[in-house]
Amino acid sequence: NIDLLRMTFGLQVGYSDHTLGYSIPLASVMKGVSVIEKHYTLDKSMPGWDHAVSATPDELAIIVSESGRIVNALGHKHRVVNEREKESRKKMRRSIVAARNLEAGHTLRLEDLEYKRPGTGIEPAAYTSLVGRILKQGIQNDQIFTWSHVD
Fold it and tell me: What is the β-pairing status of strands 35-38 and 14-17?
């Protein structure tokens, strides 16, 4: 009923758990609950039905740590690029490179351009900004283009 309650009342929803283990409270995190209520016990064999469905210290630690991992994995509405992704992008993306040795004064044509890794230079989507421009300086085969190469 998590989705129904949220939709009906337009409020954040919590989950009061009385199940065995920690799978169901973790599933409630996937559904977007803002708080979980879970009984806590040091001994599940103590008298009273609450102890059997309560979390031990180890189970509670799993619920807390895995809830955090789930929330992080689900992400946010706004894309955040971390440092590791930024470094990977340089290695995995491509740059515009010279398809052959080109001399200063040459007017660039599409066939003068290739796209290769790493992605530390002009991105391939900018090829239309290069075609038709004149080289200020020569460029070697496979050399990455920079804006300083063209007029």
Answer: parallel
- For residue 151, name the pLDDT band (cuts at 50, 70, 90): confident
Query: What distance in Å separates the CA atoms of residue 69 and residue 65, rounded to the nearest whole number?
Result: 6
Cα gap 151→140, rounded to integer Å: 17
Which pTM value belongs to this model?
A: 0.55
What pLDDT does residue 88 have?
A: 86
Q: Is the CA virtual torsion 92, 94, 100, 104 positive or negative?
A: negative
Q: Among all chains, which residue has been given the structure tokens 């075609």?
A: 131
Token pair in block for residue 101: 């040795």
Do 103 and 113 form a contact (C-beta atoms < 8 A)?
no
63 near 38, Cβ under 8 Å?
Answer: yes
Neighbours of 135 (CB within 10 A): 20
